[in-house]
Every structure is written in structure tokens, then in C-alpha cells.
């Protein structure tokens, strides 16, 4: 069998039936009489569905009583799917324990920060730290692996579902104290680094430390997030250890994460997973913020720095917004192609068919509860037909970027604990930098500050609020080796303990920059920002910068505002050999940031693959100089024409090679630099 | 003695002194020295007050210590009132237990959904399910009945006060589990009907079922509301059983409900009560939404399908809004006449005199705490004088409607559990249909889906979200027998268990309609709706309809919007013999709904009693062809003239019979089709 | 040694080094290595800082283990400060107990109204009523006093920090019950005065009374606030009793209060303190509401009716707003001079240097965490230089007012418990009266209703909602002795038990006024108010007044509005000998109140010290006819010229005496009626 899941995932092997680009759905056979399964699978097959995810909420059916297992129905469901050329991802069902489990062992239930134990009736009611719960989770995962680890139609595993809810139960508290003890060694070190002399917080021992996620010392808050991260990591390992010994190596293991969700550091958790997979849900509306969604795909690709899966996405609408407006006709397909354009090898819709009852009755589906297709079924069927055409062309390709934006959980947490300016949303600020970069460079990576930066010509760290010495050293080395580094406002303000950098902002990079922050200002109105031939403004946040080296240049300064900022530097830059470091001390307006980005790209010698493409046409490129596939998505309400850098072959449409493409509203084009066999 | 309370209430008997239209007040003699009583009663008499409600918050005075009763003060209060020609409704005091009771028996205290036990100091602090509390409630009601059951000046009983607060105490939880067991027989049936395979909710036994009113399986949520309903019903029976053996049959038993309040199914609770009585409080402002209030009166009349009482209403203002604006001069009288116009036989103001202290010091009254009349006293005195003039004319009359709007608690609950579109308030949607109907048909009933629909030419079910097979069968029969049925959006979506109808919406009526809902859409902007000669729009909600029978006609369809709805049917109708069924798939704009309503009324051959009356003059009609009394209320800020269908005699004003009436702003006219003796 | 702290504080003695006008900062030596202290103190000295407050959050450092004390570091810190000519206020550290204390004695922890025990990690986590906590608080205060009570560099004591948080622990509950028993004698008296017959609240004993601060009988709510007040008073005495025996009488004792904060009656708590001191923080923005802040200074001066300290104020910005905008350049100095203009003898900035970690890292400071001055340092240094120049001139002076505004906690509480009109904020209403008074009279006192009113020509009681017979008698006597009294709306409505006055509003003053309130109206729109030559409006609240004496005149009446108010009296006045009483029944618009104020001042023969000064220039006067110091602060964005009543000498600026002054934007001038030595 040949690899198909992702070309970069060595263990994954191609299933005889499965195409390289997979259309999938979430299927809950346990909710329906077996006699209806074939009806559903036939309709899946007609829509070119080749993948189902099953099992992730079926613990009660798999283990109806403690230690009594029933997997026969799953055997039959997998076999039935296979008959329709559909492969399976199995979910471990630990996001929703059975009633018997939590009734008998209430200590496995999650406890909220306010001390309230959760109860049965919803999901995620378990404690992620409970030793007893992990034993049960290990056992059910192991039983599943023993049964399905060699099933040829099972291609991978999803652990649990959408890790999210912290717990403050006694297990979690004791583990947090032990975690702190391990991190700090002794209580004196903790007292010193947390500066507990403040407010007489001084601790005599680790047990005295309150376990909370809010209104505490910023050092404690940051460590709590790190502890939560490590706990989800070990929670994953617990199940991986149960599955690995019994499963073929071709079966990958992942979990499904949630966009910008910051409940844990996704880079750390992904260390123990084979591939990244995420659930792509967008804000309510007939349209979606496609640049935001593009960034989220790039974020997911950055977790493992290779192609990823969209494990869930919406067939038009969801049920958990206040008002669940459905995506306009055509936008579901547009989103599917955006995912692929950014490196997805599978796109899976949640869910296949409306459940007959339960909290999610109103969620979008492909089939109604009555088993008949709803209107969006046809549009997704079109996606399936597209994937069938384009799969071979895209096999083995992935996006390659020359520029990267740094996403850092420590910094996002630290700012969110202490916004200081209510509108300083660190994700919004990241996207303020991402937006012009995507428009001008077209292919962008979003990576951790710990990722290797080799090969990037330009790296932007939007608000790298927490900056450790090691991280600063890596960034310094990047610049010294010719890289171009741009730091956004609030960067380098905090040390590893979320304390203020003793050197002043940007901390260990101040000497590299040859400048520093004299004072920061939260803004409730805009402040003018000017340069030699430049006029713009800052909002939300402005830092008064100070030049401390003759080699450091003032790129922009503030106009007249609150007296303090008047005529003070707003943006500094310094050349270091072939590299450079730039510090942007304010949240600049979009136009200004757009023009600055152009100057940074020029300086770093970065060129867009399709220069001059219209702003509202998304350009995605997979592959490299040898073999390039361009995916164009028209997000405009009107038709658009796009010039190609060279003659390319259409993949979805019939037609001859051309150096220009026309796109209808919400139109998609896939173009191959090599001649496409099917179009000959 | 002759019946006076309501002509349709056989047991109620006329008190020698009491007029057929009663002006009343809530009086708290226990708050004042007995020496002051006569001062107050004299002022009541001067205002034509003939009714007081007493006792409903006086448990501490009636039973100062466990088992020790003191009713002497009530004997004297009732006798004192009688000397001023005032009859009495007695409230059982169970809405506010004494401190000694809840101190000694804390298990009788209410427990909130979050598990917090209520405490003394406010009211409604009891558990409605507590077995022990019911014993105390039974005993105090029985003691009262023994003392006052044959008192000729006591005309009826009010149980408790404004039933409202659920409890989640252990008694309530055990009873809910038993209730579920009784409903479903075995746990397997519950698992199947609740579809608990979803999220692994499967229960092994009834005790595992969480007892909550929020964030649970929709089936559980709906059953909780039904359990709450049955619990208030049995709570009522407990006291009725204590009163009946000791009370004259002429003494009616009721409780006072609260407009649109949906804490329980009021139809079920009213099964065990003699008459309906409600507390008519309006939103803060100088004016009130009189159409909303008209609908609430019609709702109350529909509980027992006969005349009702307004047990409380505001003498200008209340104290529980954020800003308690007082009704403009004249509006209090206007409201009193609206109540009568819709079938009230008594209008009682809360409260007579400002309490010297306590949470409601600021509430509107007729007398200040100092015992002197406040300005609104004169206006209410005018109401008393009106009632004295009109009582004889209105005796024995009630409104008679040819059209009905269905109010269904199951459906309202189901939608509120899962709004999907935040602004889809089912009461607002009901009123969207009620408003044009009231304007065009003038006399409208609001009834339960279980009420007999015989005699209605047109029935509108605004959002009959939950539709059981039995209900569907009754509606189908109504249409087949020549009735005209209009279903609003979201109708027939859910089955009795709040699960999705397996046939697709509108479920068991889809085959009758010859059409169905292909997909629903929550809207955040309007969508055009067009017909042959019609232009309008939909907001909040739009369903894409689908014709499935050649006899089914498209009345309206959508214009260009989100792609999915473009050119799709929005309103379908089908003739079945002399009857018809119409399905309105969207929340239409008011103008469109007004024109559609006209077409429905025309088709159903319904004619307004006073065609052509100005929109801002409310037309109420009591009586039938033999003897008709018309009540006109001018809600406009300017004078209005109204043409009468025939010559009628003025009842309040001196004057000759005429076929036209002039109304000042907030003016009221009562007109009799028979010559009025007093005006001769 | 000579007195310096305040000239009116007999015990306070001048420290050899300390100037009469003190610039200070909050310093936390415990947060820094001792080796860094001198660096900081040198920078303080350079900024003319002569005062530090230390110790108030250092309990863990003072008493690292139960009963083990370490004061050596404080000895050294005080000595180091003294070497830089800096005196010390010591804070007792009881606002933040050590971890060992609350871990071992969890009963000392605060319990919230919802029954949740607080925990370590923040501050104010103690129960203010805990007997055990008070023992610890006494001991640490006593140990400090023994150590520092005779230290010549320690000038005073601050008890705890910002008293604020009530506790509902068992100690507090038992004490409240005992407090009620003491107040009412027996339960029958309480039942009568609280009118507990209402809602069957009747109590059999004091233990049944719920202990809550919300949603209870208004009588209970008011008594709870009084109990809280008495508890903070005894909390203070507990520490005073520990300090006094061991401290020099020259060392004053105070605590730092918070502006309009109404958690307790500050007049009662100040009875046991030597001087008033408050923390002056303003709303977020580049500017501040200087009239509000002026009123807050006058409020603080009124606590002891002599000069006060600003114990904390912001060096530009704080960290606890949603968006912490920094004051515009120049405004920090402006605020410092406003404080002095209203009677401050010390202005202290919080805090000196950014803490290396902790919840307040982002708060404004003079030094960054890195030990270098931030921009505002220079501006505060200027304040220090100013103080050095002006200290001698201002020594011994204080403002003298002819007019007073009454601030009454009972009334503010009572209204806030029952706003009735959501926007009726009693502080906003007080300021509506204060604003024109300050503009026209320029020097204004804000005092308790229990203060002696001798010497005031005009007294305004904005919303004296609770009015006891004794208070009414004092106000009556004031009028009879020639005083001019103005009562605002809602005055005299409630008695001492927060019950409605049995005589009707304004209760015991109705007979003095010769008029009363017939009915009150909460407003959601404005109502016209007219007089002989007057046109204006009322908002939020309007009372329909009624004349009951031929000597009572209608000053203003309402125009056409809701029918009830049309043409009814809005403002009444009555002359009584040389005095007068005026009742303003509505919240009048600013213009109207401005003109009314002019008429009141004219009638009372009050004249502004600097008539005709521009509205946006604040005029402050310290001293009396013999020696007057005028402080002018230009709050305008443009320059202003101010005419002086006579030739005066500039104190801050070099220059000759003049009868006119020019002020730059945010400019400050200090002018002396006597020739200034330094300028000669």
C-alpha cells in the first residue's frame, strides 16, 4: 500500500480505494438503526465522500458496562463504509464518558474554577488531570486499538475531541503544585521569580499556592497555562501509549484543535502527534473573513510544519452562534478549496446527518434527520467531484513560504491576562501584520518562536510579549545570519516568569535594536504617525521609543497628540550586516502597515508568485519551482481576471493552457504548471 | 343569592352588595393598626371599591407559632370591609412562609439550579415540590377554609401568589425521576426517544439523569418544563383539597398568573381552578403596548374559555423596572376598560396603600404611607363610577370570536431552548400574527392547541414548533371540516420529545400541506418576498419550501438573497374541500402579514364588527347578536370619530343614541345595542 | 520641632528635614535588593521627594513565621531614606495577611455574600469582623509601634489599606445579630420598625435575620451598612489601641479612603482617626473631570474639617481600567496643585517604581522596573520644585467656605438600594448641585449632615433621602437662625429605619417648608420646568409638589408633560425670618440650576473671591482675609487671563506683583496676598 494521508507523513500508507485529496464527513452510525446505514453510505458515495470519522462520542456503545465491550457494531460500520470505498478515522470517545463511569467515580468529573463539579448530560465533563480517568481512557483506547489497529480500512486515530476544559479538581491542584516544584526546585526560587514580596504573597511551601486561572499573579497565571499544556500533552501520551503497541504504523494519531483557541500551547501538544488536524468553523454570516481563515490554516500547517487535515468544517451553518446565519451559496466550496490551497489533504464536514435529538439538532448537515439531502449536499458533491479531478495533481505538494509570522502562546496569554488596553487583542494584532503580508507575499507561514527560522527572508513577531533569553538569542542569530526581523508593539516586555524585563523593553533584544521603549501608552483615540513621505495613525497602543545607538534609525515618529508622544520615535530599525531588526512601537493603521510591509519585503528580496493579482482573489500555491499548482479563489461578488506568471493548465475546468484566468463570483480555479493529462 | 362573579361560573353567587363589575384593591390590614382600618375603608368606599384581596402574605400573623392560629384580626377586617360594602378574596399565604417554619425545617426551602438554598427575607423561598412544605400549606389553607369557608363576605380564594420559581431540591429531583419513569416506563424507551446515543448520554437508570433547566438535551429540557407544570398543578390540588370540604361551593378558587410567563403550561394548571385571574403589569413608560396587553387579556380568557379577573394591576407605576415611569394621566382608566372589553369582570389595583417599609415601598398605590390619596386615586375613582354605570349592561356578556390564535407552551419552550436566531422570540412572533388579526377581526381568541376549534372560521398557529401526532390529527380534522388553518414558521419541526420530526418539517402535517421545508435559514438581514402583486420582506427566519403536491400553490416566494432562497417558495397553501391549510415559512414584515391576513379573513368569510374603525381606537365587543356591548378606547394622542354599524346607546356618557361616537385622547365609550335605562 | 503635617493637627510635629508641603511616593523596599535602595533614594531626592510610605503590604517580611518578627530591614530602609531627607509613613500590613496565617487559621478569611471563602493570592482576603484576625492585626501593629513609635523619621501611621470588602463569615453574622439586638432592644421593636408584617417577614428572634447586602428589606440593608461602618470603626480602634501606647503623640494615625466610595460611613470611621487621607485616582482619559475631583478633595477635607493628605495618586496612569489611557502631559502637575488648592498638605504618588512582577506591573510609576526614570518623572520633579517654592507660603493655611453641600451616606445608600429611576445616581445628583456652587462661590465645603452648620450662609442638601427627627431639628434650627437651606429631590422621604416618613415627604421638614410632595415620578424623558422669566427642564426625577402654607411660594412649576405634572409646582421656597428653606423637587438641567444657584447665593449674600474668573480656570483659595493664597489652574486647552481682586505676588514664577495673571494651557499660578520673600 502506498502513502496517501500526507506525503510528508512517512508512516501513513495509501488505502487501495482512497484518493490523495479526501472529502469526508462525521458519521454517527450508533445513532441510527443498522438497516439505514446503507442508505446513508450510498448517498455519501454519490457525493464522492471517501472518509468518515466515527466513534468519538460512542463510549456508552463501546463499553456499555464497566469492562464489558461491544465493538461488533463498529466492525460492521467500517465494513459497510469500505463497501462504498470509504475509509475511516476512529475517534477515541473520551470527550464524553458514560453515565455509569462518572456515577460510580465522581472524582473523574471536572471541577470548575469556582469549585463546582460538572455532571453528566453534556460533554467534556471529565477532569483532564484525573489519574483514575486516565486509566479508563487508556483502557478504552487500548481495546479499540486491539480491535482496529490492523483494520486495513482504518487510516488513523483522533484522540478525544477538541481539548478545551481545564479542571480544578484535587488531582489537578496537586499536580500543579508538583509541576511548580519541578519547575522552580525550591519555594525560594519561586518567591523570587514571582516577586511575591508584592502584596505579601510570599509562600512557605508549594501547597499554599492558589490554583486559579484568573485574577492572580501574572506569573502564576502563565505557569497555569503551561501546566495545562503539559497536562494535555500527557493526556495525549496516555492514549498514544495505549494505541501504539497494537496499531499498524501506517495509522496516524492526531487530535482536532480549534483555530486561535489558546487554552494550551498547541506546539507543545503537537510534539506527540503525527499530523495536525483542526476544526474550521467561521463566524456567523453569509460570508467569512477569508484572511482570518487563511491565517488559521497557516497556523495549523505550522504545528507540524507540513500538510494537515481539516477534521471538521461546517456544511453552511452551525448551531452555537446567537444567530446562525448560513453561508451564501458557493461559499462552502470556496472554503474547501481555501483549505486545500493552504495545505489541507482532507476536508471533512460535520456532520453528515441531523441527529434525531440532542443539543446539536440545529447544526448544519448534508442530510436531514429524515435521511433526505438538504440543499448544501449538491454543493459538497461538487467539492467531491473537484477533489477527484485535482487529487493526482496535488498529491505530494505543499505550500512553501519565504516569510513567516510568529505565533507565541506565552505572549498571547500574557497580554490577555493584562490587556491594559481593552481592544488589544493579540490575535487581532497578529492578523494586522498577517493581512498585508498575505496580500503581498501570498504564501505565508505561521510558526512558533521556537521553530527554525532558516530559509525565511523575513520574520514578523507581532507582539512577542514574553521573550526568554534563549528565544532572544535565536532571533539575534537569525538577524546576524542575514534575516530580517520585525517586532510588533509590546514585544520583549516580559521575561519567562511574566515579570517585567529587568533591562526594559524589548528586553534582551534592546541592545540588538539599539533602542528601547521609554514608556507605553494605551490609547482611546488615534495618534498621528508620520515619516519622511508618510502619513498615518496609531490606535489602541503606542510606545514612545528611544534611540540608543548611532546605527539605529527612526523610520516613523508620532505627530502631536498627548504631549508625551509628540515627535517621539514610533518605529526604529537597525541594519546588522545583511540582516536587520525593526521595532514597530504602535498598532499602526492598515494603510501604513501595508506600505511598511512592502518596504520590508523589498528589503528582504521577497516576491509574490502572482504579482498584481486582485486584492479579493486569494492566491494559494502548492509545490515548488519544479512543479507548481496555483489555486485561485475569487472572494469578490463580481467576476475577476487574473494574469498568470506563465502558461498554466486548468485542472477543474476543461480548456487549453493559458496565461490568464477568469473567475466568477466565488469561483475557483486550479492551475498546473505541468500539462494535465485529463485535459489533453 | 345570585351569581355575580362571572356569569359562566355556575358556583359563584352574587353577594348582596357586590356589583357585577368589580373594582378592587389589594389590602394588607396586617400592616396597619386596626384603628386606621376604617379611615382606609371609607376612602375605598368613596372610590367605589367593592372588593379587597387580603391575607396572601400574612402567614406569620395567621400562624404566629407552629400550630397556633390567630384569625380574629381577619374576622374583624372582613367585617369592617363588609360595613363599607366590600367583599373579600382570601389569599392563601403560602408564597411567603414564616421564619419559624423555614428555620425549623430548612428542607422546605427552595434550592436554585446552582444548588443554593434560598433563605428567609424575601418571598417564594419555598420548594414547590417539598412534601413537608405541602403539609404545612395544606394545614394553613384548611384552617382558613374552616374559618372563612362559609363567611358570606368571602367570595373566593386565591392560591399562593404568582407561581414562578422552580426548585432543584432533593424532593424535586426524586419526583422528576419518578415522573420520567412514569412517562417512559423503562430507561430504554427514554434512551431511544431522547436519542441519548448522541454524546454518549445513554442512561442506565433514571437516577443518573441530571436535573437541570438549562444546557441539556432538548428532550430533557422540555420534560422538565412539563414536570414543573404538573408539580404546580399538584401544588394547587393540595390546597384545593384542603379548602373544598370546608368552603361553600359559591366560593371560587383561582390563582394569579403573569401574562406571557412561560414557567409552566398555564392550560394544565387551570384545569383544576375555577376561574382565571391574572396580574396585568405593563412595560415601563407613559404609554403601554395596548395590542400586546389585549393579547394577554385574550390569553387569560382562553385559559378557561370564559370571563376572567384582573387580580392585580398597576395604579400608574410599579417598582421593579430599572426606571419606573408612571402611566400618563388617563391611561390607568383606559387600561381598566381594555380589561373589561376583553372579558374581565373585576379589576383590582395593587396596592391600596404604600407599605411603611419593605422591598415594595416605591410601588404605585392609591394612598401614600401617610394615608392620604395620591393623584391617581381620582382617576381610579372615575373607573369605579364607570363600573357602577356599566355593570348592569355588561352583566352576563363575554367576547365571542370567529378567529383564534394558538398559544402553545411546548413550542414556545422548544424554540426558546434553541433560538438559533437570537431574535426569534416566539411570543413576539405570535404577536406579529395577532396584531393584524385584532385590527381586522377585532375580536380574537387565544387558545391552546388542545382546545376545541369548532366554531372558528380561521385558526392561526404562529410557531407550532412541537407537534404531536394527536395534535396534527385534530388540526387535519379541523381543515377537513372546512376550517382555515395557517401555520407560521418553524411549525411541525419537533415531535413530542423535542426531537426532529422523522418526516421533515412540518412533520405529520406535511402530507396535508402537500409541501415541506427543504431547509431553514436564520437571518441577520432581510430577504425580499414577492408574489403576483406583492412586495415585502422576511426577517429573522426564512424557510425554503418545496411543493410536493399538484394541489399545493405557491402564494409567495423569495427574491434574490443568499443564493439558496432565491426564487424559492416562502408561503404555500392548499385547499381541502371548503377548508384550507397555509404554511408561512418566514417571519414576514408587518405590511405583508397585514395584507395576507386580509386575504385569509376574506377566504374564511370573517367580518369585523366595526369595519373601518381607526387603527388606534381599540374595538372590544361583549355579547352576541341579541345584545351587543361595544367598548371603544382611543389610544391616540388626538380625538377620533368612530362610525357604529347601527344606532347604539351611550352607557357612560349621558346622551342620545347615535351611529357615531367621538372620543377624546384616552377617551372611552361604552355603547349598548339596547336602550340604556339610566339614559332615558 | 515644629508642627508640619497639618497646621490644625496639634500632635503632628515638624521633622527637621521635612518641608510643609510634602511630595511623596509609595516605596516597597521589600521588593528590591538592599543594594539598589540608594539608587532609588537618590533619584527620589533629585525629584524633591521628602516622604515615602512603606510597609503596608509587607507582613510576610515583618513576620515571616507566626510570632517571629524581622524589622531590621525596615530600620535600614527608614535610615536610608532619612539620609536623603525623606520621612516615612508606616502602613500596618493588615490588608494582606501572610500565607501561613490564613493557611493555619482559615476562619480569618473573608466570606463573600454568596458564601465563598476567599483565598490567598490577592489582597483584602481577611474578614474585617474576625476576632482571631483582629488579634493578629493587633499584635503586628503593636510590634511595629514598639519598634518605630519613637523613630524620629516616622511621622505617622496608615492603618491597613483602602478598607473595602465586607465579610459574611460566621463572626460577622453573629456580630450583626448582636448589633441589631443592641439597636432595637427586642425583636418586637425591630419587627415594628422594619414593618416585617410585609411579606410575612416577621422574626421571632435575631438569629433568624438573614445577613445579606442585597435584595432584602430596605431597613435591613441600611442597618447592614451601619453595622459595616461600626465594624470598620472598631477594626481601626483595634490597631489604634495597639499603636498609641508605644508611639509618640506627634505620630498621626490615619487610613487611606477612596473618593465617593460608599462601603461605609466615612464620617463615623474618621472619628477615631487623626487626619483624613485619600487615594485620588481618576477615570481613564487624557483629561479628568476636575470638578468631580475638586468635590472629592472637599469631601476628604470635610471628614475632619481640616487639611488632609493625598496618600496615593496616579503618576499618569493606572492599570485597573479597561483601557488605561495616560493623563496628557501637564495634567499630573495640574492635579497635584488642585489637591493643594483644596487643602492637601501632602501629595504622594503610587508607586515609585514598577514591581518586577505581580498584578500591578502595568500601573503608572516614576521609575521603570529597570530603575530608570520614565517620562512622567520630570513632571513630578517639577511638582517637587513647586512645592519647595510654595511650602512656606502655604504653611498654616486652609480653605474657608461660606457655603456647604451635605453628603449623607444614609441617603446615598437608601437611594442606591432603591433607585427607582436607574440613572438617579445620588453622587451625580450631589455633583449637579456642587458644580454651579463651585463655579460661583469658588470655595465650597462638603460636610456631614451632623456637622455644625454655624458660619455657613448657604447649605445645600442634594438628596437627603433619610432624615431623622434629630437631623430635621438641626436643619430647622439652622434656618431659624438665619441660614439658607436648599433641599434636593427625594429629601426627607425616609425615616431612620429606611421606612417611608409617616408624614409624607419631606417628612419632619414638611411643616417647616409649608409644602410637601404629592407624588414622585421617575422620568425617561425630560419635562419642561418654567418660572416667571425662566425656561428649563427636569430629567430622571420629578416630584409634584403641593403648597400647604400661605407663606410658601412657588419658584418654578412644570410645563405640559405626563398630565399629572402639568402646571404643578416644581420648586417651593419659604422665608423664615432672615433664613429660608427651599425645596427643589426635580433633577433640573444644568443651566436652570446654575441660575437658581446664583439667586440663592445672592439671597445669602455670598460673594466669590475672584468674581469673573473664566469657567475653565479653577480658583482655589487658602487662608483668610489676613493672608490669602490663591491657586489658579487652567483646565482649558488654550491660554487664559485672570483678573485678581487686588495686587498679588507670584509664588512659583519669578515676577512682580500684579492684579492680572496669564496662564498657559494646564498652567498653574500661586499668588500670595503678602509679598513673597523669594521673589523680592
UniProtKB/TrEMBL annotation, chains A, B, C:
Q: Is this entry keyworded Zinc?
A: yes
EC number assigned by the record: 3.2.1.23
Sorted alphabetically, which keywords does the UniProt record give?
Glycosidase, Hydrolase, Metal-binding, Zinc
Domain Glycoside hydrolase family 42 N-terminal, chain residue ranges per copy: 27-388
Q: Does the keyword Cell wall biogenesis/degradation apply?
A: no
Could you tell me what reaction this enzyme catalyses? Hydrolysis of terminal non-reducing beta-D-galactose residues in beta-D-galactosides
> What region holds the Beta-galactosidase trimerisation domain?
401-606
SUPFAM superfamilies according to UniProt: (Trans)glycosidases, Class I glutamine amidotransferase-like
Q: Which PANTHER family match?
A: BETA-GALACTOSIDASE GANA, BETA-GALACTOSIDASE YESZ
Q: Name the protein family.
A: Belongs to the glycosyl hydrolase 42 family.
What name has this protein been given in UniProt?
A: Beta-galactosidase
Annotated organism of origin: Rhodanobacter terrae
